[in-house]
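With this grant's support, we have settled on a layout for protein records. An illustrative entry appears below exactly as we store it:
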Amino acid sequence: MTSDEIAHLISLVAIGDRKAFAVLYRETSPKLLSICLRILRDRTDAEEATQEVYVKIWQRAGVFAAGSGAPSSWLAAIARNQAIDIMRARKPIADELDGAYDLADDDPSPEIQTVIKDEGRRIDTCMEELEADRATAVKRAYVEGQSYQELADQFGVPLNTMRTWLRRSLLKLRECMER
């Protein structure tokens, strides 16, 4: 589900649309549950936290500003904050705290993974706005690392033409990403 679709569902939830809320829950609950589970490390607590998250989403959907950021980031922040609040409310057990410091997780957090996926989708959408040969040239230059000369040879255009294609394509991509 795209960011725009999630933002639209949130705007419908803000006006009390129960069907939109059900769709939003169905589409986003696995991610939000995983955020809560990662923080709380207990499935029952994570499920209760996720339930509270959706109560807050229902109550606060009206304050979500679609232009201020990715809706999935907003949802992830609510889940993260709810899970942290539950953690703080618990009475810490010394053994659990000692063990927590010994664990290291190098993987990006679910929130960061969600933001990365959203950005990837935005880039893909913007790449689709480019002409097919320009998009292919951009991918080969900046993802595969091909030189301008290699690309010029492959596309049968002069070197300066390839440079112009890439420069203009990057400007179009930047424009699209800023929208």
